[in-house]
Design goal:
The protein is mainly α. The chain has helices at about 10-20, 20-25, 35-55. The longest helix has 25 residues, at about 35-55. The radius of gyration is 14 Å and the shape is elongated. The model is unreliable at about 60-64 (pLDDT under 50).
Length: about 60
């Protein structure tokens, strides 16, 4: 049976997950640095896409 883990799509969540090795524990396997680098790239691309859409629609997301 496969395993899965949810990670909220924010830099803070990813930073904490990486620092505290949460994905490895949740998945009960080794999660390598290459996977974290891939997640950082995807998060960066998603944030850029969201910023572009917000710019085109004249909206702003402010997280508090």
């Amino acid at each position: 049976m496969g395993r899965s883990a949810y990670l909220c799509p924010s830099a803070e969540c990813l930073k904490i997950a990486q620092k505290k090795n949460r994905l490895s524990r949740a998945l009960r396997t080794t999660v390598g640095e290459d996977l974290y680098q891939s997640l950082w790239r995807r998060l960066s691309l998603a944030n850029r896409s969201e910023a572009t859409v917000n710019h085109l629609h004249g909206t702003t997301n402010i997280m508090m």
